[in-house]
Amino acid sequence: MSDAIFVNGLVLHAYHGVMPHEAKVGQPFRLDFEVDVDLAEASRTDKLKSSVSYEMLMKTASEAFCTRRYRLVEAAAGAVAEAVLDTYPRVQSIRVTVRKPHAPIAATFDDVGVTITRSREGSRG
């Protein structure tokens, strides 16, 4: 399938990380995600019920990402992917990138993070 809906640069403040101060102060994270979904019906009917709402995708992702503290961004990204797949039957797969621009690393960088892919078939990338 080549149809997709995407959200780039969703900024969420959360308390993920291995270091104790990350649990207290938190930090901003940037999420990008793309869902594979058949948009043929939506393109013909011009009806939202034939698609998946950007707003609802962001709400689901935000709740999954921020409700619980994770030590690893891998786990936080996995929670987003699972929540989206569980909530939206039209979504066949999701690719989630979590960027951590203020990671406590002694180096100069723009950001660090992970990208995971999950699908209804259970394939992982």
Protein architecture, described:
With about 120 residues, this protein is α+β, with helices and mostly antiparallel strands. The chain has one domain: GTP Cyclohydrolase I, domain 2 (2-Layer Sandwich), CATH 3.30.1130. It is built from four helices and four strands. The protein has helices at about 20-25, 40-45, 55-65, 75-85; strands at about 5-15, 25-35, 90-100, 110-120. Strands 1-2-3-4 form a four-stranded antiparallel β-sheet. The longest helix is centred in the middle third of the chain and has 15 residues, at about 75-85. It starts with a strand and ends in a 6-residue tail after the last strand.
Structural category is alpha+beta
* Approximate strand percentage: 25-35%
The Cα radius of gyration reads 15 Å
| Topology as a string of helices (H) and strands (E) | EHEHHHEE
What is the residue-mean pLDDT, rounded to a whole number?
Answer: 92
| Number of helical regions | 4
Low-confidence stretches: none
Number of domains: 1
Largest sheet: 4 strands, antiparallel
Q: How is the largest sheet built, in terms of strand order?
A: 1-2-3-4
Mind telling me the CATH class?
Alpha Beta
CATH superfamily: GTP cyclohydrolase I, C-terminal domain/NADPH-dependent 7-cyano-7-deazaguanine reductase, N-terminal domain
Give the beta-strand count. 4
CATH architectural label: 2-Layer Sandwich
What form results from the Cα inertia axes?
Answer: elongated
**Could you give the distance between the termini?**
17 Å
CATH topology, what is it called?
Answer: GTP Cyclohydrolase I, domain 2
Helix content: 25-40%
